[in-house]
Amino acid sequence: MGSELNLSTTESSFLSRAWIGNIFSIIWNWTGVWFSWTRQSDTMLRNIEKTILSCVTTAYKRFYVDIGSVVGQCDKIWTISLNDEAPQTPLVMLHGMGAGVALWCPNLDALAATRPVYAIDLLGFGRSSRPKFATDAEKVEAQWVESVEEWRREVKINHFILLGHSLGGYIATAYALKYPDRVRHLILADPWGFPEKPSNVYEKYQVPFWVRTVAKVLQPLNPLWAVRAAGPAGKWLVSKTRPDISRKFMNYVADAETIIPEYLYQCNSQTPSGESAFHTLMHGFGWAKNPMVRRVDKLHPALPVTVLYGSRSWVDNTTGQQLAQHRPDSDTNVQVINGAGHHIYLDKPDLFNKYVNEACARADADTTFATRIAKTESSSEKRSSGDTQPDLGPKQCDDTNQVSTS
């Protein structure tokens, strides 16, 4: 009888989930496409970004890089570059989920003082193209990695220091796993997607039952669906739910409490391309389906890695120590920044800039990189990589959009 009862309960549960799934498939279509009634505007996003970046005193360029058919038909990566004539190793910066290049404004002057710096809007975010990604986690990861590689090829950077925050840290690590000959130093800022999801996650974090229920009901939806569902009230929703982010910019951006929510709203009220891709990667918001902890031992042993965590962040910083344990004979430097949360580059920008600049200086002084490249290239002749990689598609984008300094 017990088995019959379980079977009935299971069937009932399945039917309930199916019914909920049908409801949410409608909501998904409603919230997963661009809303004509939102206040989203490409012109407004461009102007807001320019306003935020006005606090940067170093001369910079803003331009699109055509990367061909990596995911969509004609993908473009929005890029800003500073001090690109300097001879030191370039620093490439990848932002986190829902962010954009302008949020690096407290860091750009300090980091570009002695070297070229490139910050990009990840494909699917900010002002970059918003193609439809795959629905398989491994394929999504590969698509993001190839978008960064195609961008590198188009910008003609042979090797660089790669910095990623949150989701950007996950993508940066995946890139370093596939293209170790391109990365001189990997810097991970409060990276997402490294630990395994605990089997008893609700008990471990003492999550109330009602929170569990809401989380399960909203699981089919993209993380920022409410911003689009709110329509014209989306900016107000951003400002009320995350007022802390605006406050972090008050020393840099005039009227930050208005400008920053507008920027975040403009970035995330568009088609949720990158957001949907992130949803495909995640196993619950805080974890990845293919966590990096399973693969970090495959990073090139000669690749130096710097990991920066915020002491008050929700990200599990024990994975930094696990990374060091998985690479006992490698250069792995883990720093926990006291008083910083997940957005460590905003919470403690001076300390963040200091640690990043120190990592970059070590990369410049690294005399083993040429040897590592030679060994990597000799052992990977059978696979196409770097500039010998076959083109992923004709670059037929409008040349008038190739460079924009507006």
From TrEMBL:
Pfam families: Abhydrolase_1 (PF00561). It catalyses: 1-(9Z-octadecenoyl)-sn-glycero-3-phosphate + (5Z,8Z,11Z,14Z)-eicosatetraenoyl-CoA = 1-(9Z)-octadecenoyl-2-(5Z,8Z,11Z,14Z)-eicosatetraenoyl-sn-glycero-3-phosphate + CoA; 1-hexadecanoyl-sn-glycero-3-phosphate + (9Z)-octadecenoyl-CoA = 1-hexadecanoyl-2-(9Z-octadecenoyl)-sn-glycero-3-phosphate + CoA; 1-(9Z-octadecenoyl)-sn-glycero-3-phosphate + hexadecanoyl-CoA = 1-(9Z)-octadecenoyl-2-hexadecanoyl-sn-glycero-3-phosphate + CoA; 1-octadecanoyl-sn-glycero-3-phosphate + (9Z)-octadecenoyl-CoA = 1-octadecanoyl-2-(9Z-octadecenoyl)-sn-glycero-3-phosphate + CoA. It is an enzyme of class 2 (transferase). Residues 373-406 are annotated as: Disordered. It is found in: Cytoplasm; Lipid droplet. The chain crosses the membrane at residues 20-37, 160-177. Residues 90-349 form the AB hydrolase-1 domain. Residues 374-385 have a biased composition (Basic and acidic residues). It comes from the Eukaryota. One of its GO terms (cellular component) is lipid droplet. PANTHER family: PUMMELIG, ISOFORM A (PTHR42886:SF29), RE40534P-RELATED (PTHR42886). Belongs to the peptidase S33 family. ABHD4/ABHD5 subfamily. This is 1-acylglycerol-3-phosphate O-acyltransferase ABHD5. It comes from Pieris macdunnoughi. The lineage of its organism: Eukaryota, Metazoa, Ecdysozoa, Arthropoda, Hexapoda.
